[in-house]
């Protein structure tokens, strides 16, 4: 599946904005209620998986009948969240990129756990992002070019205990050989001064969060 994108739609906050991220040749994974979202918007999930404890019996049968592949599990006797199950499946396909939609929602514990999934993708050399109506979140561990696109702000937060050697090019508020530690807010709400910027770093894992507001 090299060269393909996988879109995982899971059960957090979703809206019409999510449809704009889906391309015709994407592999679509519906995680729990995310599968229902895809079906209700005219898409047939390539695979639907989860415990489906957030849907009704009728919705469960609709998901089963409307998905190319259907995988369900017992909601009690499982160790992983539905989103992590779907993410692990996606990683095993070795795609070019994975996008998570609906990974941010009202459950902060699930939202934070989903952000941590990005590290697993990085460790396997697979480009991954979480996208919602206002944000795009990635994790980097080496120098990376960042495009401004439709986003107005960009924040940098350490995912490891410490990130060293951070140098910013093309940003309104520059950093040179800086160190960020967990608990510091120095990297919050920067702005790209041009359409493209560069983040350099030496060690550590850095969350890059682009926001529209």
Automatic annotation (TrEMBL):
Q: What sequence ranges are listed for the domain Thiamin pyrophosphokinase thiamin-binding? A: 149-207
Q: What class of enzyme is it?
A: transferase
**E.C. number(s) listed in UniProt:** 2.7.6.2
For this protein, the record's Pfam families field holds: TPK_B1_binding, TPK_catalytic
Which CDD domains does the record associate with it?
TPK
Please give the SUPFAM superfamilies that the UniProt record associates with this protein: Thiamin pyrophosphokinase, catalytic domain, Thiamin pyrophosphokinase, substrate-binding domain
Top-rank taxon of the source lineage equals Bacteria
Single annotated GO MF:
thiamine diphosphokinase activity
* Record key words, sorted: ATP-binding, Kinase, Nucleotide-binding, Transferase
Q: Which InterPro entries does the entry link to?
A: Thi_PPkinase, Thiamin_PyroPKinase_B1-bd, TPK, TPK_B1-bd_sf, TPK_catalytic, TPK_catalytic_sf
List the PANTHER family.
Answer: THIAMINE PYROPHOSPHOKINASE
Q: What is this protein called?
A: Thiamine diphosphokinase
Organism in which the protein naturally occurs = Paenibacillus alba
Q: What high-level taxonomic lineage is stated for the organism?
A: Bacteria, Bacillati, Bacillota, Bacilli, Bacillales
């Amino acid at each position: 599946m090299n060269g393909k994108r996988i879109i995982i739609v899971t059960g957090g906050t979703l809206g019409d904005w999510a449809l704009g991220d889906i391309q015709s040749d994407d592999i679509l994974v519906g995680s729990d209620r995310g599968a229902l979202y895809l079906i209700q918007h005219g898409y047939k999930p390539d695979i639907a998986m989860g415990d489906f404890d957030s849907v009704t019996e009728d919705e469960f049968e609709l998901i089963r009948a409307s998905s190319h592949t259907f995988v369900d599990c017992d909601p009690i006797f499982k160790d992983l969240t539905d989103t992590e199950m779907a993410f692990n499946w996606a990683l095993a396909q070795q795609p070019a990129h994975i996008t998570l939609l609906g990974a941010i929602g009202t459950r902060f514990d699930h939202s934070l756990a989903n952000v941590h999934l990005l590290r697993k993708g990085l460790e396997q050399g697979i480009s991954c992002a979480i996208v919602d109506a206002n944000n795009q979140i990635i994790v980097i561990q080496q120098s990376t070019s960042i495009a401004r696109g439709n986003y107005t702000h960009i924040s940098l937060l350490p995912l490891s205990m410490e990130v060293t050697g951070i140098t910013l090019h093309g940003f309104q508020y520059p950093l040179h050989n800086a160190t960020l530690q967990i608990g510091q807010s120095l990297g919050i709400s920067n702005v790209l001064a041009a359409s493209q910027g560069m983040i350099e770093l030496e060690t550590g894992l850095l969350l890059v969060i682009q926001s529209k507001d």
